[in-house]
Amino acid sequence: MTSDPRVFVTRRIPKEGIDLLSEVASVEVWPDRLPPPREELIKEAARSDGLLTLLTDRIDQELMDAAPRLRVVANYAVGYDNIDVESATSRGIWVTNTPGVLTEATADFSFALLLAAARRVVEGDRATRGGQWLTWEPTYMLGAAVHAKTLGIVGMGRIGESVARRARGFSMEILYTDPNSRPDLEVELGIRQVELDELLSTSDFISLHAPLNDNTRGLIGERELRVVKPGAILINTARGELVDEGALVPALESGPLGAAGLDVYRTEPIPGDHPLLRLDNVVLAPHLGSATVEARTAMAEVAAGNLVSVLGGGRPQTPVNDPGGEGQGS
To answer: What Cα–Cα distance (Å) separates residue 260 from each residue in 22, 198, 206?
Structure first.
C-alpha cells in the first residue's frame, strides 16, 4: 500500500490549512516562531512531496536538487521572489501563491498607515502616554489633511485598486503609474495614469503596491526622492526592497518627505540600530498588511488547497508556473 505524501509547513499557520492538508498527507509543521535554519529546511524538503513556505524561505536550485520527491511549493504570500520559479518549472515542480484573499486586508492597512502618518497618531499616542500632553493647543501636533488631497498609487493591481476605492471615499484625486493601463478604472473611479516622476512631484500621498522584480527593486531611490513634492507622505505595504532606505532616511530628516508609514523593510525584522527607529515622522509596523483573522485563514486554505490539488494529481487553483511546459503563469 502506498504511503501518504508528506508535506512540510515552514511555520505555524491557521489550523484550517493544516486540517485540509491532514486529510490527504502526512504533515510536519516547523514549531518555532523563527524560520527553519537553512540546513533544516533542506533536510525537510529532501523527504517531502510538498512544501508550504513563507517569503523568508529561500527555495533555490540547491534545495530542489536535494529534494527529488518535491512536486509543489505553495507560498503563503502573493509574492514569490523567494522561489527560483524557472528552476522549479524545469524540474516539473509547481509553484503557487495566495492572490486575492489578502487584498482588502492589505488595502485597509495601507490606508490605516496613511491616516496614522498624516495625523501623527502614533506620535500623539506616545506623547499622551508620556505625559507630554499639557493642554489643548491651537498649534500642537498639527498634521496633514487627507480629504481632497492627491494620492499617487504605484502599481494598480488588486491592492492598488482597492486602495483607490477607499481614497474615493475621501474625495481624493487619484494618480497611478503601472506598466498596464486601467481604462476601466479610469472611467469608473476617475483616476489618471501618469509617469512616475509626475506622480511623485504632484502627489500629497504616495502608496506603493508594485511587485518586487528586477524592474522595481530600488524603484524609489535618491533621484526619485529628490523629485517628491515637499511634505509628501510615503506609504509602503508592498515590499521593502522597492525603497532605497539609505536615501529614505535623509529624505525624512531634512525633506522633501514629510512623513512615512512603513510595513515592510529591506531586512525583516528591522535591525535595532536602524536610523528609521529614531525618527518621529515615521510609523513603523511589523509587516501586518494581511494580519486579519479572515485574510490569514483564507491564505492558509488557498495554500493548502493548492497542495492538495497537486498531490492528488490535479492542477492548483492559483499557479505561478506551469511545469507541464507552458512556462511561468499567472
So the answer is: 43, 19, 9
Q: Are residues 114 and 92 part of one domain?
A: no
Q: Are 106 and 237 in contact (CB under 8 A)?
A: yes
Question: What distance in Å separates the CA atoms of residue 259 and residue 236, rounded to the nearest whole number?
Answer: 12
Cell numbers for 252, please give them: 525624512
**Does residue 1 belong to any structural domain of this protein?**
no
One domain for residues 19 and 58: yes
Name the residue type at position 38.
Answer: R
Q: Is residue 267 part of a domain?
A: yes
Return all residues near 70 (Cβ < 8 A) that are at least 6 apart: 45, 48, 49, 50, 51, 64, 91, 93
Question: 57-116 pLDDT, tens per residue?
Answer: 999 999 999 999 999 999 999 999 999 999 999 999 999 999 999 999 999 999 999 999
Per-chain mean pLDDT for the chain: 96
- In the predicted structure, residue 193 carries a pLDDT above the cut 60: yes
Residues 211 and 285: their CA atoms lie apart, in Å, by 19
Domain span at residue 232 reads: 103-284
Enter the pTM of the model. Answer: 0.91
H helices of 26-178, in order, are 38-46, 61-65, 85-90, 103-118, 121-129, 158-168
Per-residue pLDDT reduced to its tens digit, 129-166: 999 999 999 999 999 999 999 999 999 999 999 999 99
Q: Which residues are catalytic?
A: 239, 268, 287
Torsion angle defined by CA atoms of residues 30, 31, 34 and 38, in that order, rounded to the nearest 10 degrees: -30
At 210, which CATH number?
A: 3.40.50.720
Rounded distance, CA 329 to CA 73, Å?
Answer: 15
